[in-house]
Design brief:
Strand order of the largest sheet: 5-4-1-6-10-7-11
Structural class: alpha/beta
CATH superfamily: Spore Coat Polysaccharide Biosynthesis Protein SpsA, Chain A
Distance between the termini: 31 Å
Helix content: 25-40%
CATH architecture: Alpha-Beta Complex
Shape: globular
Number of domains: 1
Largest sheet: 7 strands, mixed
Strand content: 15-25%
CATH topology: Spore Coat Polysaccharide Biosynthesis Protein SpsA, Chain A
Number of helices: 7
């Protein structure tokens, strides 16, 4: 894959609705804005050729200024997202420049590492789609709408899906052009095409910052590294 161009789309167009009024993207984590820590990992990863950052209107100018101040040479575009997460990813896909591989990552997962990114690229190479995930630790219950337990699946084959998610570019572009129903991640769109998706071991530390408690946990993880 060394001769193929690899692009990354960092999806950061969410509303931080569960952060008690805090904009999580610019909350300081280990002394830096959370979004800056995400972008830096991709900037410093040797395999990445190009980075697209997809944002809400309120953070577009601020991120452009941060990119200029930090000299992130791989960031080729900061663009507005859409109404749904998949619409935001699609906006990023439109702006990639001749990339054969695409890495899609949540802007709210600041503890991603180059190692996780590189493992994803290696796993995707043979099949075209690979997704970071971790085996679930808790027992999972399936319920009715009223909250009554209907099934308890064996957790042996249950994984909690993360990002990065790595795809051959033609495959993920096809998925976004054909799948219009709302989904929660890009892998689901590829699955709906009938294409196989490989899960690979991510990290339990690769958490998504959704609530203030998640932010506190991320600080603890960083302090203990």
């Amino acid at each position: 894959m060394t001769e193929e161009r690899i692009g990354a789309i960092i999806v950061a167009a969410g509303k931080s609705e569960r952060m008690n009024g805090i904009d999580k993207l610019f909350t300081l984590l280990d002394g830096k804005p959370l979004l800056a820590k995400v972008i830096e990992v991709f900037q410093e990863c040797d395999s990445i050729d190009e980075i697209i950052v997809v944002l809400g209107q309120e953070n577009l100018e601020r991120t452009q200024q941060m990119t200029s101040q930090n000299g992130w040479s791989k960031v080729s575009s900061q663009c507005l997202g859409g109404a749904r997460r998949q619409d935001s990813v699609n906006e990023g896909l439109k702006r990639l420049n001749n990339c054969q591989w695409v890495i899609i990552h949540d802007g709210a997962r600041p503890l991603v590492t180059s190692d996780i990114i590189m493992k994803g690229l290696a796993e995707a190479h043979g099949i075209g789609a690979a997704v970071a995930a971790v085996p679930v630790k808790d027992t999972i219950k399936m319920t009715s709408e009223e909250g009554f337990v209907r099934d308890t699946p064996l957790r042996d084959n249950l994984w909690a899906v993360q990002t990065p998610q790595v795809f051959r570019s033609d495959l993920i572009i096809q998925a976004h052009s054909q799948i219009t129903e709302e989904v929660t991640d890009d892998a689901t769109m590829v699955e709906k095409l009938g294409h196989e998706v490989k899960l690979y071991m991510g990290s339990y530390q690769n958490i998504k910052i959704t609530t203030p408690e998640d932010l506190a946990l991320a600080e603890i993880i960083l302090r203990n590294k």
